[in-house]
Amino acid sequence: MKIGIFIDNFFEPQKYKDPGVIAESLVNLGHQITIYCFNTNSLEFNGIAIKKVSNRISQSIPFWEQEKIDYLILYSWLSLRFSNLIKALKSANKKIILKLDSDGHLISPLKPTYLRTIGRSNAPKQLIIHALRFLQWSVFASLNSKKRLNQLLMSDAAIIESPPALINLKYSCEFWGQEKLGKKIIFIPDPVSFDIVNDSNIPSQRENIIICNGRWGDKQKNKSGLISVLSSVDLSGWKLIIIGPGAKKIKAILLKKKKDIKIEAIEKIDHHLISGYLKKSKIFFAPSNHESFNLAAAEALCCGCSLAGTPLESFFYFTNNNLYGSLSKNFNVFEIAKALKNEMDKWNQGKYQPQETSNYWREQLSPKNISNKINDLLKKL
Q1: At what angle are helices 333-348 and 223-232 packed, to 10 degrees?
Q2: Were both Cys, which of 79, 135, 335, 349 would link to 328 (CB 3.0–4.6 Å)?
Q3: pTM metric for this prediction
């Protein structure tokens, strides 16, 4: 098959995330792949052609008619900016598979738990952020819901990355009398990168390390919550590793609050080095306000860590009824701290087998497994 993958930006991070990994995996199955995007710094990725197009060209029917692809996997997230692109693809007789996520531009009404405005910090700045997010997910989503539904109507299928996110989206479709659209949407998780899944050297013996990995300037990662929790929890005998932009600032703040804390901060790290830190750690801590899939958490599970986090769609999938981690009841700092302490206790009680955790998740999230599921979907269209 000749398959296109369209994403707005394709840079170095996307090579290790699902756009790049899915592209390579489909090539391994014998398909011819082309990556389309608005912005990139390369026209080739491991032998796969990358075509940079303008927004105007992407909405051109003649452009897609001349492109030698039969299917396009489109990272639209139901964003209205891609509606004209989908119309052009439909007119050019291309099969369209939408790639969605639980934190994309979804359809109103959303499940009440999705708004996540209760139980958080009462600081004025946080209340303003939550108020704006409430408007984004309720008022604005409601105004645009029929337009977003139209994307699903025009598409041939849609993929979403966690079972709870699938339930949310089907609920919204049913509200608008479009329950048939729910049959177009299927759950397929995002794959982890090849270097993670191919690494079978997973040590059972672990250090008492809590690792956190993220872009700490992004509001969704909840830097303030991270600092509050780590300042309040007894970390005697444990070490913290903070990875990502903003890590050194977090370290400085925590050292002021707890001078005896053991902490390592890494602002920037090559992707192939991350697994080395994950394989010696016990807990991946993610106090996120919201997430799509959180590939960093997925990689941690594949390396044998457990997850302590907040009640997000993909995190419910990852923890699997507390089998692989603990989630807070809400987004209150006290509750998030309880989830982290619960994971520390479970490790102290010997309740985890890192190799078993790793084996399970490397199978669930392997590029081969995910590409086979996408391949099966394409055959049905």
Answers
A1: 60
A2: 335
A3: 0.92
